[in-house]
Amino acid sequence: MGKLGKEIVKLDVDVLLKKLNSALADEWLAYYQYWIGAKVVKGPMKDAVISELDLHATEELGHATLLATRIVQLGGTPVLSPDEWAKVSGCGYDAPVDPYVETVLAQNIKGEQCAIRTYSDLLDFTRDKDPVTYNMVLTILSDEVEHEEDLASLAEDLEMMLQHRK
Ligand code: FE
Ligand code: FE
Ligand code: MG
Predict the structure, then answer these.
(1) Span from the CA of 34 to the centroid of ligand 2 (angstroms)
(2) Ligand 1 centre distance from Cα of residue 112 (Å)
(3) Fewer CB near the last or first residue (10 Å), C or N of the chain?
(4) What is the rounded CA–CA span in Å between residue 140 and residue 121?
(5) How close is the Cα of 145 to the center of ligand 2, in Å?
(6) Which ligand is nearest to the CA of 109?
(7) What residues contact 152, with CB distance under 8 A and at least 6 apart?
(8) What percent of the chain has pLDDT over 70?
(9) Where are the beta strands (DSSP E) in the chain?
(10) Angstrom distance (rounded) from CA 115 to CA 99
């Protein structure tokens, strides 16, 4: 662990590590929710939805990598077992038991909105206190805002298509 790198952090590192581990668990659950969603989703515009779900899955895994790396840098231990994911996660997991596109999109939009709140809070927590974590969180937050928009726009297209059929 880099001693000076941790010394320059002007906040309670244990509290920060808890928040980062909660976000790490969120990312793994989000990864799986997208990954399995892409496998089971059914209905109109399925192909476009699958592409977006698969891409988001990959991006959530990228967020998990950033978080785990930062946790180690700060002298913490990233969650070591999948058993812990549901316990420490802030956003939880929504199983796509109903595979209809509209339902899967709505579940993932809800997940992204939770992620946006989580990272927005982390920005407030680290602002002017831990620029390295702040910068990482800002990168992740920008992706989550994009994710919400991508899914909302697919949901809108789907809605339009179904409206015009009537
Ligand atoms: Fe993410
Ligand atoms: Fe996301
Ligand atoms: Mg996207």
Answers:
(1) 9
(2) 8
(3) C
(4) 13
(5) 8
(6) 2
(7) 109
(8) 99
(9) none
(10) 22
Ligand positioned closest to the Cα atom of 118:
1
* Among the bound ligands, the one closest to the CA of 153: 3
Any idea which ligand is nearest the CA of 54? 3
Tokens 């010394």 belong to 7
Structure tokens at 62: 């990228």
Distance CA 104, CA 76 (A): 34
CA 117 to centroid of ligand 3, rounded, Å? 18
- Closest ligand, as measured to the CA of 145: 2
In the predicted model, what is the mean pLDDT of residues 149-155? Answer: 98
Q: 3: exposed, middle or buried (C-beta count within 10 Å: 0-12, 13-18, 19+)?
A: exposed
Residue 166 has pLDDT above 70, yes or no: no
Give the chain's domains with CATH numbers.
Answer: 11-164 (1.20.1260.10)
Average pLDDT, the chain: 97
Instruction: Report the C-alpha gap between 92 and 113 in whole angstroms.
Output: 12
* Ligand 2 midpoint to CA 115 (Å): 7
pLDDT, tens only, 40-97: 999 999 999 999 999 999 999 999 999 999 999 999 999 999 999 999 999 999 999 9
